[in-house]
Design a protein that fits this description.
mainly alpha; Rossmann fold; Arc Repressor Mutant, subunit A; 5 domains; three-stranded mixed beta sheet; 47 helices; DNA binding
Length: 934
């Protein structure tokens, strides 16, 4: 049965047959049950919702009659459908099969915005606009609707229409103002803000909200954050003369999943692609990459956590549920056809926009030739860039309408004047008229760059050719130190459009970079500059302080240099210097590949080699591919000796799955050594790891003692990553003891720190942690929302551990709500993966959860088998709380329940000092209720 609430009430069968629901009160009853999303609604509440202060004489009987009418209407349309309306001790529940609002929310959460908007038929719960029971659901759905509009297409059209209905809605106005600004209508956006401010003051006597006032200021200062997407570079000037091409490209992208912009160098393919970028676009600059670096660059651009040895499957898995535009810029030197084919096949919501000098050659590829500018557009571009109104038609004809050539020439007007520029170009092109080698337009661009080069002085030429060793963008510091030339030369090249400046970074356009590299080789400087480039980026990696207050800034800076690190020659020095950065950013797969390759190089320093072995062993511990992690760790420790950092790192990366009898002595030795050395950061890190190890023992005093000391040290060091580590066991301890306010406070603080650092896997784990607290405090709708949010983040990161944690939470909530089939599906999905990675604690927990499900269905034999499996695994790892859980399950896996086992479990928990808090007694109380009275 399908129910629709996004507009007037809609009910139909699975085959599409409309279902008539008679009587206004019956329809209101149905909407009330739908608004409560499968939660029971008491009879008293329903009576109040339906009749308010004037209930009928026999209110309970009248309500029962309306329920009967609803069941009859459903049964007539679909035999057996009357069972969708259930009655229990807590009240009436509608077990709706499909509700359009649920589908709508799922689409918005997963980025399928166009699909979501197609479901919207009008105001949610439109049949009951004045009923309080529908208000929370309506407001929630309307917020989601605004989110979908803001990040979808036709924002202006849709917000303009909505404002006629909701003229004082500040959230809607915020979306509208941003849309106006992004459309280049800043003045109109400011006018609309002023109109709203005056209307609020006049009609409500209120000021605009602080958030809207801040948006107004951002519009005034042209804040870059207002651009349609922060993932794309900020163009510094307007796109001129491309209206028709842009419109055709938009049309092709809407109708095709792979569009390739093809044209000669300098014709403006990249600039056009950036203009086509949408809020969900991600740019991968391919010009500086080698074939082997493509997957790593893709993962970095998408913010994907790379944990496994084989990156491609994780990349495909991450993209499979996402809806985004991937811009692959400058593809011509790489073989990308098979990769793009596999990406598109695995990700239905993916569109690819490529720029290249030739098509990729894939079936279904739509090739769009990017032509040179028309004569009129060439004149407009040149005059705009040069700041003149003179007749420049002759100059533009010489330059064949190639935007880059026009841009380069326009910078010379100030020095040469229009007439002088025209004469110089005539002389230069006359000399090159008989030149061969490439299409005419390519010769034109080459001649223009060559001419621009000749107009530089010797020092400017030296700077330009030396900049060619950088990959992608670079900083002013990098440019000056690698070139060994003063910064004013770089700034002069920016003025001449030979270097592009954006947000404090600099880069060479692909055509200029290729030309400059030729000049570098001709000058015989390539080897020396490559060496200086490698030295600079190695020194930068070594200088990066990823411990303490500079952590966030250094992470951001190293992120910006990813292409340059990949372009530098592989060395053990660089791999070990970047290892901690790779770990923090979840680039474990790249770290493993680079460390292993570096270790294979000849003539290694023994001490450096030992350090690299430790890093590699720790990174291997994060892989889920069955590597012999323990053996790698032991070999590394033999090489490095009893170094406390090695002892800590190889414990920290294995605490959840390793052998506690090995890990506890190892971390104790690390703590002792850090204490003797006075290494505060190392001591704080090791204490947080020991606190986590004690989670298995459920030693709450030890967990709190080590965590609080760790947090104290990390606070003194102002280390946000450390705070995340230190509070983990504190959160677990608070949850175990039922102190949910404390757990919530730590979780919310951790999410803020993780977001600041861009550690999205940590955000996922902590968001799921908030979901657990919502579950335990009885807010199951909020629990599902948080767990789903965490799951979505984990999928985007391709982090299986975080995804498993979130989905297990969804399973726990589903079981609490009696949705046993859903719960079983969530749990069983992860058994194979947990077996693969050796996740024995997780297997034990899921075995018990599946045992409870079997028991709730009355299948006591299956329940007993599953709980016995959980008990066996819990005993194997020595987790006393898991043993108690299995005993509780076994107590219920018989008819009648075995109270002796419940008593034994209770005694064990009391002995541990971790009695079940009231919120976690769901199964115990349910099993006790099955015991027949004496």
């Amino acid at each position: 049965m399908y129910f629709g609430v996004l507009g007037p009430l809609l009910v139909r069968t699975d085959t599409g047959v409309p279902v008539a629901v008679p009587d206004t009160k019956v329809r209101t009853l149905l909407l009330d049950l739908l608004a409560n999303q499968g939660r029971p609604v008491s009879a008293d509440r329903l009576i109040d919702d339906l009749w308010g202060t004037r209930p009928p004489r026999n209110a309970t009987g009248t309500l029962q009659a309306r329920v009967s009418q609803l069941r009859t209407a459903l049964e007539r349309a679909e035999p057996g459908a009357r069972s969708l309306v259930q009655h229990g001790p807590a009240g009436y529940t509608l077990t709706a099969e499909v509700v359009d609002s649920n589908v709508f929310e799922q689409y918005v959460r997963t980025g399928r915005l166009s699909d979501a908007l197609e479901l919207w038929r009008g105001q949610p719960y439109a049949d009951v606009p004045d009923h309080e029971f529908a208000r929370p659901a309506r407001e929630h759905l309307e917020d989601l609707y605004l989110t979908a509009i803001e990040h979808g297409d036709d924002v202006l059209q849709q917000t303009t229409a909505l404002l006629q209905q909701r003229p004082l809605d500040e959230r809607l106005h915020a979306v509208h103002l941003k849309a106006l600004y992004r459309a280049g209508r800043q003045h109109e956006a400011l006018e609309k803000y002023a109109e709203l401010r005056d209307a609020l003051a006049e009609e409500l006597g209120a000021d605009v909200s602080p958030a809207l006032a801040e948006l107004h200021q951002a519009i005034l200062r042209h804040d870059p954050s207002l651009r349609r997407t922060a993932t794309l570079p900020e163009p510094l000037n307007d796109l001129i003369g491309r209206d028709e091409t842009l419109a055709e490209a938009h049309q092709q992208l809407a109708a095709n999943r792979l569009v390739t912009l093809v044209g000669p160098g300098g014709v403006g393919k990249t600039r056009l692609a950036l203009e086509l970028g949408s809020p969900n676009a991600h740019l991968v600059e391919l010009a500086p990459l080698r074939q082997d670096d493509v997957l790593d660059a893709l993962a970095t651009a998408l913010g994907l956590r790379d944990e496994s040895s084989d990156l491609l499957p994780r990349l495909l898995d991450s993209l499979s549920t996402r809806q985004l535009l991937l811009i692959l810029d400058n593809c011509e030197h790489l073989d990308l056809a098979d990769l793009v084919r596999r990406l598109l096949a695995a990700a239905p919501g993916l569109r690819v926009l490529a720029t290249s000098r030739e098509p990729l050659g894939l079936t279904g590829e739509r090739v769009l030739d990017v032509p040179p500018l028309s004569a009129a557009a060439s004149v407009e571009l040149f005059q705009t860039r040069a700041g003149v109104t003179d007749d420049v038609t002759a100059i533009c004809e010489r330059l064949d309408g190639i935007p880059l050539a026009l841009e380069l020439a326009a910078t010379r007007v100030r020095a040469l004047g229009v007439q002088g520029l025209a004469e110089r170009l005539d002389d230069r092109f006359r000399l090159l008229a008989g030149a061969k080698g490439g299409p005419e337009r390519q010769r034109t661009l080459r001649a223009t760059i060559d001419w621009s080069w000749d107009l530089l002085d010797d020092e400017e030429r030296r700077m330009l050719r030396r900049l060619a060793v950088h990959a992608g963008s670079f900083s002013l510091e990098a440019a000056t130190q690698v070139s060994e030339l003063p910064e004013h030369l770089l700034l002069a090249l920016v003025d001449k459009s030979l270097v592009v400046a954006s947000a404090g970074r600099y880069r060479l356009l692909e055509s200029v970079a290729a030309y400059s590299l030729e000049k570098l080789v001709e000058a015989g400087e390539q080897a020396d500059l490559r060496h200086r480039h490698a030295d600079y980026y190695l020194a930068l990696a070594r200088k990066a302080d990823l411990h303490g207050p500079g952590q966030r800034e250094w992470l951001r800076r190293l992120d910006l240099e990813a292409a340059n690190f990949r372009a530098a020659p592989l060395s053990l020095e660089l791999a070990t210097a970047l290892a901690w950065y790779w770990y923090l950013r979840g680039r474990h797969g790249e770290a493993r590949r680079k460390l292993a390759a570096a270790l294979a190089l000849p003539d290694q320093q023994p001490e450096l080699r030992a350090q690299a072995m430790v890093w590699l062993a720790g990174m291997l511990a994060t892989d889920a591919q069955g590597t012999d992690v323990a053996a790698a760790g032991e070999e590394a420790l033999r090489a490095v000796g009893d170094d406390p950092h090695a002892l800590w790192f190889l414990t920290m990366t294995r605490w959840a799955y390793g052998d506690a009898t090995v890990l506890f002595p190892r971390i104790d030795r690390a703590i002792e050594a850090f204490t003797e050395r006075g290494d505060q950061w190392g001591l704080a890190a090791a204490l947080s790891t020991r606190a986590q190890l004690n989670i298995v023992r459920a030693d709450l005093p030890a967990m709190r003692r080590d965590s609080l000391r760790s947090l104290e040290l990390f606070d003194a060091l102002d280390d946000d990553w450390g705070r995340l580590q230190a509070t983990y066991a504190l959160i677990v301890a608070a949850e175990i003891s039922g102190d949910y306010p404390t757990a919530t406070a730590y979780l919310e603080d951790a999410i803020q720190h993780a977001e600041d650092l861009g550690l999205w896997t940590e955000v996922s784990f902590r968001t799921a942690g908030l979901g657990r607290i919502a579950l335990l405090t009885g807010d199951l709708a909020r629990a599902d929302e948080l767990h789903e949010q965490a799951r979505r983040l984990a999928v985007e990161q391709s982090n299986k551990s975080a995804e498993e944690y979130a989905e297990v939470g969804l399973g726990l909530s589903a079981r609490r709500q009696g949705r046993l089939d859903d719960a079983e599906r969530y749990f069983t999905k992860w058994l194979d993966w947990l077996t693969q990675i050796g996740g024995t604690p997780g297997i034990a927990f899921i075995s018990n959860q599946l045992g409870f499900i079997a028991e709730q269905r009355g299948d006591y034999a299956t329940a007993r088998t599953l709980h016995e499996r959980g008990l066996e695994l819990a005993q194997q790892i020595g987790d006393q709380r898991a043993i108690a859980l299995a005993l509780e399950g076994l107590a219920g896996a018989s008819e009648p329940p075995l109270l002796a086992l419940l008593t034994k479990a209770t005694a064990l928990r009391q002995q541990l000092g971790t009695p079940l808090p009231p919120a976690e007694r769901f199964d115990v109380e349910r099993i006790q209720a099955r015991v027949p009275p004496p």
